[in-house]
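Loading example: each entry is read as two labelled lines plus one structure line.
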Amino acid sequence: MIEIRNVSKTFEDNKAVDNVSVSIKENTVFGLIGTNGAGKSTVLRMVAGILEPDEGEIAIDGLPVFDNVEAKRKFYFIADEPYFFANSNPVDMQKYLSSVYPEFAVEDYYNYLVNFGLDKRRKINTYSKGMKKQLALICGICSNTKYLLGDETFDGLDPVMRQGIKSIFASEMEKRGLTPIIASHNLRELEDICDHVGLLHKGGVLLSKDLEDMKCNIQKVQCVFSSNEDEEKAISSLDIMKNEKRGSLNTLTVRGSKAEILAIFATVNTVFLEALPLSLEEIFISETEVVGYDIKKLILG
Amino acid sequence: MTLKNSFLASLRENNKRRIWVWIVSFFSFVIVLPSILAIVISQNKSNLEGYIEVYGEAVGTRMLYNEVTYSITSMLCGQSGAAWLVIAMIAVFCGIQGFSYLYHKKKIDFYNAMPVRRKKRFLVIWLNGVIICVVPYFIGVLTSLLVVACNGFMTADIFVGAWQIFALNLCFFLGVYHLTMLAVMLTGHVIITYCAIGVLFLYECIVRLMVMGYMDMFFKLYSGYSISTEPVLSPFTMLFSYDAINGGMLKSACSLLIFAGCTGTVAYIAYLKRPAEAAGKAIAFSWPKPWLKILLTVPIALLVGLAVASMVNYNPIYGTTNFGVVLFALIVATIFMCCLMQVIYEFDIKGMLHKKSHIVISAVAVAFIFCIFRFDILGYDTYIPNPEKVESAFVEFPIDDYTYYGNSYWDEDMQYMSRRQFADEHMYLTDIGSVNKLLQLSIDAVDGYENLDKLYDDTERNWHTVNVTFRMANKREISRSIWVDVNDPEMAEVIDRIESSEEFISGAYMGTSDELTLALNDENRKVIAHFGNGIYRVDMKREEAKELLKLYQEDIRSSSFFKFRENACVGSMVLSFEKKNEHYTSYAETSLQIYPFYEKSIAYLKEKGYYMDGYLNPEDIERIQVTNYHNELVEAANEQEEVSEFTQAGFEAATMVVPKEYDELNDFTTRITYESEEDIEKLCDSLYPRDYLYQSWHNANGADDDYMVIVYFKPESEVGIDNDGMAYYGFALAGVPGFVEEDTAYVK
């Protein structure tokens, strides 16, 4: 388990991460999502032992991570812009990684290269951005570490490749208990792969929950009330995060389980009532809106 | 086989990314060094036939051997500027290239996330840097020695010398390498790293130059003798302190190793403390930024002020002031430097005026330091050392010296030294009271003038600058350049006290030194000795010179300032030495003046028949031409003309007519030639060789510059043949015979 306890980090006068505490369980896919500048990359770089937190602690399986070789052997970090040695090819990278990761799966590495269509003798600086991302992912997967830290991992991959990587993740999770931790602002990419989500906003954690719990605990309801009295009664009983009304149609984002919410609606008269599934993007917008990050404000000023 | 996670594997992996530095190092040491050596040997060998033809086989072969071994020794075993430059260049490349990943966020993310301890990564990169220099350099030296051996010039000296220099140069490499590493650790961008290397190498120089410049500008008694512009904390200074002739290699190597150890340790600590987010920034750490800015701004602004002061001739101690311009330059330089540093810190020109408080602090510091010098707040010009804290002192009185070019002083290897260096090595005055008294009299005398220009203009005084250096008990040396008027009775008395001391005599005259006695007794040194007065000259045998030197050493112990002043030099024994060394020949010369009160020396010269009464033998003289320029009339006429020129009418007249030639206007010259034996005999008693008449420390009056005397010798006389028939003489001031004054009087 990766434990992040009360971690803060300031760059000169900018507080990038402020008192963040998150626990990342093993054998899950953890999605680190957040607004731009929320501190996702900073948190991930601190987890990778690249940056030293100003305050707080980060431990991987109980081991402090900063400048700790034992802790670092447990993960592989893929930066948003992965680095490869100048003029190197995948073979050179394999040789280096084999020297630092004792469990590096050399055979799997070359198999993956073939499967992904990457030429092992071609210089990496002639690869496209997506190919470099694929190679970085292959390096990470084959390092055979317990955790895989990825910053904007799927950025630059085509949908087929994304799906392929997700399959590999699933297979590695099943095979050896890999725990991918992926930071991204592309919520749709994470929605179908993440088990658990940590939502960062302005350097702090807004929430950290299982995706299913999150989805189950926020509902989107469209309804037309029979009368104003019914509307007032229902609204006062519900934990409403957002209410949009067009004509007589109310679109409500409501906190609570589907059963609880429908039970409340059963006590009032409605002309029309429908409970809609909520996407991760909608949850993200709703949660950030509550703390003042209003998409409309950004668009309309 | 893959070496997994071992140190050697890390070294190998790191080396793969440093190929171009390897190529530079390999090319410089393994290809260029032996190739140049082979070319030099081959070129020298091609001279063999010519040598044999001119000098014969035995001598020619020997000459060639000496020439080639000298070239080899210079290249492999000596101080080679090219080798140091290459080593310094490779050290800088290794330091920057090895740790260049610290400049890039992408690379830092990659390396810092790898399961490699930072200490290990540092060690791997550091060690590879050393290997990149050591291995090719070792191969290069080995190959060069093989080239030498194959050509048949190998000697034990060359073999040992080459490896000694190899070791010394490696110490130098470590010094430069670690200083470069420190610059890398403190910065986050390669261009700023190069700037930081420049600052680390030059900062001490800048501060020293600034301090020396301001002391020179504001202190009337400033002496730079005990102060050097050479930075102490520089691997170059430590390396240059090694002297191929005088040795000191071990000391040089040890100081380089200590320097390398200290800078390496600081660089290592900085590496461990350096935050990853420093990549791409100008300075890696936040806390030293204001300090760095102020510490760079202040000396550079003061140095700019100094340069401007020199340009506008701002020199208050000489009475010239142009302070406004200097102040403006100081203010502009302070603001400019602070702004420049802030722009570098932020990589944004718009940030130039951020942190205005730093400009204010820097300006206050500049003003404070300027005032320290300007108003002599630390009391440099009034400092008199506590005699209890002084171990000894030496003074550099400008005593008369008639040696050719004045190079009278040299060491046991016949390397020339200045009078001050000789005094520094040989003079240990313990009568500090007298030295302090002289210093105090000088301070009081200088205080009596508004500025040094007024002091110079005071023609009634006979000013000399004298360097005084105190060797303090705490091993510091304190020097002052004081102003001494040898005509001042009080000063003259103190000078006499100092000059008559045994300690002064041992440290002021080459004739009393062991080095001269050793040279004269060393049969391996060729010596030419003669006695003469500049015109007349007699050759002496070596044994005679030895005997005269012994007597001179006894006589000079009874000398004093007043005795020298009262007596003109009667002649000098000049000793010229030649010593053949392995690869070169040394030459040295010194002149020992004989005065009338040197009784034993004069008795010996008389016994040998070398002494002559007076400076001229009337029997050798055909005629004497005396020219009187009547300088006082020339000056009076000039003054009168200046007055008339400055009136309006005079000015207009001067612009209307073409001026006459100067000589035509104010020529009052009279000339007479004496040919009778009687006149010549009378004149001989009053004439001195011109060299003996210059106004000097001991000769307070000097020559009467109104007169020029040319003595024409008889063509058949020996002195006439030696001096191309004539020689220049002169009269001492107030020593012109009455009949000459009458004969040369100016009549309109």
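Chain A is about 40% helix and 30% strand.
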